[in-house]
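Support request, please re-run this one:
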Amino acid sequence: MCHLIAYTIMAQQKEKSEIQKMQDDFEKYKKEETEAFKNYREQENKKFADYMKQEWEAFQAFKGTPVPKSPDPVKPLVKEDPNKKPVDNPVPKGDIVPLPEPRPQAQPIEPMPVVPEKENPSIINFSFFSVPCSVVWNDSLKFHISALNGNVLAATWKRLAGKSYNNFLANCIGLRSKLELCDWGYVALVRRITESIYGSPKTNEAVLLQMFVLSQTGYKVRIAQVENDQLVLLVNTDYEMYGRMFLEIGDSKFYLIDANVKQLRVLNEGFPKEQPVSMRIESEQLANKTETVQKVFTSKAYPVEAIRTGVNKELMDFYNTYPQCDWKVYANTPLSETVKNNLYPVLKSAVKEKSEAEAANMLINFVQTAFEYKTDEEQFGYERSFFPEEVFYYPYSDCEDRAFLYTTLVRDLLHLKVVLLHYPNHLATAVHFDEDVKGDYLILNNEKYLVCDPTYIGALIGDAMPQFKNVTAEIIELSSSK
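Re-run finished. Output below.
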């Protein structure tokens, strides 16, 4: 018995020893990796600072691409005989615009080794679309650029890359996670932070700080000088931004932020593994959710579907500053919880136990008739696309706005696949049903998609506008679910 106890104790000690060794090895590995990351970051920032001393490349900026115009009719088309049911009719299809593969957000070029702060660290407080925010900052971190020459900029960059700014940088990245910001939202946040520090996001110091924070976070950004000794930020995005001047560097477009100039000298140097700023919005932005005054939205054919809802006011302010970009961005952006909580219980109850066709017809009539119609030119004086939520906020909407909202409702509530149909001067949708439904259709990936037009008032699913029945439409693929 004694031998058994001794053997057991020895086995336990050996096991503890092995576990301790594993822990020690892991701690050693972590230390080595942290040191390697530290050296890696130091090396990359040193290379970047040294590059600043060289001659910056001259580039010509191009005028921004205009927002695609959709010359909608002054009044939407109303179906003459709403009781006439669609019959099967193949319609021509054009090129397919695929949806790029999703990718994770950019990550820091190394983990930020945060230094423990004193009990009451110095912070700077600011608001970001009415959301109270703060980051670690004190006056000793504030810097001044005495002249735009290579030596001064290089020295400033080396200072920024020092450990004194690690906590500030970690705070910026932490706020991105806390507010669940999309990439462009993070760019806007960084600009707001630098504005709080320097009084404007356009000063040379603010622009250099923006470049530092965004580059260290893993984004593909550049910095340039213009003739009036002004620094400007350049951002590469995954979708085109309309109406903004840009540079072509290799096969990448870099958009000018806060500048409208033709001649620039660019520091064409980036960091390893950098990736474009994504324009996609995959989750609700901002923490504040102040609901606007509720409005009532009622389907004419199905008045039981009356909806009473407001919208997230902070989100509306955020969307109002969002650069005009690709239609896929709008169509794939989810509704806020505010609208979903008011809208979806009513619509789910209305379509419950209905066939796919019946449910889709109820949803399309809601989008066709619950909202007032006006073109962008009439409402704003310029082309502007809405995120789905904005249809509930502004007094009027047009064809692309309704198409984006309809795709959202069909994917969220019916879980069906939807594409956008881009005609020469119109935007509609097409839906793949799991049951056989008659109407105007096209074949995509060996599946039948029925034309569904949210702007053809009174039309059923499968009804294409008469003038588009024989017109080739570009097919824009969307994510399968939201």
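The chain has eleven helices and 19 strands. Residues 2-52 form the longest helix (51 residues).
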